[in-house]
Design goal:
The chain has 1 helix and 11 strands, in the order E-E-E-E-H-E-E-E-E-E-E-E. It has 207 residues and is mostly beta strands. A hairpin with a 2-residue loop joins strand 8 and strand 9. The strands form 3 sheets. Strands 4-5-6-7 form a 4-stranded antiparallel beta sheet. Strands 8-9-10-11 form a 4-stranded antiparallel beta sheet, with no helix packed on it.
């Protein structure tokens, strides 16, 4: 392996995905989203990024470019979503990258982990496409006792992998759809703090 520094000076770069021209969208955990060119040139922070809870492990997390980005310019962000009562949760927003790549437009939060809790740790989180219409969202157990015990309880989204449609709706074939108590967003549960995820290129399974 040969290691080459492409860009430097970013603060806690956390997530990255490639644009069609070879440039990258890169998140900085304090709440900034930047474009880094294939040559390593770093843009000013993009406007329109959702407010994040930037404490300890929280902040702006993953960024994922939609498969149809070339025509839709749609991206997805996961982040620590703050609330006025001091609680927070992992959330996912969908947005359109402006034509000049300086701003996010049409920003909409399509998913929020529940319950929101008072914690600054174990948010996860990665956003991975299963196909053109469906994404997985990985989340953490929120770290502290007793909240992390909820990861063993499928009636909530603590310590889970959720599977949702790109508009925020729930796929009809999720494991708990139609269940009287369990959360229909759940794909799997009982996890500690999933901070890496990818789809196997041959099997299509989530790793």
């Amino acid at each position: 392996w040969t290691t080459e520094t492409l860009a430097q000076g970013l603060e806690n770069p956390w997530g990255l995905d490639f644009l069609p021209d070879g440039a990258m969208l890169v998140t900085e955990r304090p709440g900034r989203l930047r474009v880094v060119s294939a040559a390593g040139e770093i843009s000013e922070p993009l406007s329109g990024v959702p407010e994040v809870d930037n404490r300890k492990q929280g902040g702006l997390l993953d960024v994922t470019v939609a498969p149809d980005f070339a025509t839709s310019r749609t991206i997805f962000l996961s982040f620590s979503e703050p609330h006025e009562d001091g609680t927070n949760n992992t959330a996912v927003a969908r947005a359109r990258l402006s034509d000049d790549a300086t701003a996010l437009e049409e920003v909409e939060v399509i998913f929020s982990q529940y319950p929101a809790v008072e914690s600054t740790g174990h948010f996860g989180s990665r956003v991975v496409f299963q196909d053109a219409d469906t994404i997985w969202v990985t989340m953490g157990d929120r770290q502290g006792d007793p909240v992390r015990k909820n990861a063993q309880d499928p009636t909530n989204l603590i310590g889970t992998v959720a599977r949702i449609n790109t508009d925020g709706s729930i796929p009809d074939d999720n494991p708990y759809v139609g269940h009287a108590e369990n959360a229909p967003e759940i794909w799997s549960y009982g996890h500690r703090n999933i901070q890496a995820a990818a789809v196997h290129p041959e099997t299509g399974k989530l790793w």
